[in-house]
Amino acid sequence: MTFVALRYDMRTTRGGVDHAALYRAAMEQIRWADGLGIDSVVLSEHHVSEEGYLPSPLVMAGAVAAATKRINITIAALVAGLHHPIRLAEDLAVLDHLSDGRLMVVLGIGYRTIEFEVFGADRARRGPLLEELVAVLRQAWTGEPFDFRGTTVVVRPKPLTPGGPMLAVGGSVDASAKRAARLGLPLFAGDDHPELKVIYQLECERLGHRGGWSVIPSGPMFVHISDDPERDWAKIGPVALADAAVMRSWQTAGNRSLTESEATTIDELRTEGKYQVLTPDECVELCTRVHTLTLHPLLGGIDPALAWQSLELFAGEVLPKLQTS
């Protein structure tokens, strides 16, 4: 069966609903998804964005943990170089307890220059900062004293999950794949280039890392389910186009992302296929071709009432067919 996730980055574009409505709707949808049996909720991180991109995924993950019983909570991606290693070790240990071990964290090196400037982090050392962070988390989560920058420290509580919550490395370039293998962690690619999986596997073999695995994204980055796609494209198109423009403006040289769109008109956006409005039957067919269906119901501040229509169609006319396939 196709793995189904709900993603929230909590941005609202011009014309979108305000953040009070957005956060309220997101938590209502996550509680609903938990009862329905959807596999995962994915929370992302960025800072100082005009659109209000989720800056505090750990806080939101704590709220999700308290409001749900079974859905997995994935933070993808956490910008490693912006977090103090000890503070993060403590926060994630607490989150692991609050979620009863349902937490996974994908670590990324980050790319937006302004974020590193604001937090006083060295962008040129993004890779080493991530690797240092992983080493500290692993030591901290043993619950034993260890040396941290010349001071002996102990981190408590120990996580509920032995060894700590699952970690993975995110990224979309060759260096990311090799870094994941070197750290002995799974790779969660940010782009759909198949060579990333090959590079990761070869590096795992070279290093003797057995059991390494990778996730390469497939399919559209946004799916809305509708009984009248033309009607809903008229509502969603302007929001999606604004969303695409913001993400494109953030990209830096050498960075690749499945979310990056080249479209400058709504017609181009529809043709490109990264944003799709599908009938229930078309969504079922899509799920025969992709391993993960990521629903981003509140993309860019979409009207929550419209988002709920999509989710209810998914629950009533798509999910039952996936469960019996």
What does this structure look like?
Residues 19-239 form the Luciferase-like domain. The protein has 325 residues and is α/β, with parallel strands linked by helices. It has a domain at 1-6 and 220-325. The protein is built from eleven helices and twelve strands. The protein has helices spanning 19-36, 57-67, 85-98, 113-119, 126-140, 174-183, 195-207, 229-250, 266-272, 280-287, 304-324; strands at 3-8, 40-43, 72-79, 103-108, 146-148, 151-153, 166-171, 187-189, 214-215, 222-225, 275-278, 292-295. The strands form three sheets. An eight-stranded parallel β-sheet has the order 9-8-7-4-3-2-1-12, with helices on one face. A two-stranded antiparallel ribbon has the order 5-6. A two-stranded parallel ribbon has the order 10-11. The longest helix has 22 residues, at 229-250. The model has no long low-confidence stretch (mean pLDDT 95).
List its salient traits.
single chain, 325 residues, alpha/beta, two-stranded antiparallel ribbon, 11 helices, 45% helix, 16% strand, oxidoreductase, oxidoreductase activity, acting on paired donors, with incorporation or reduction of molecular oxygen
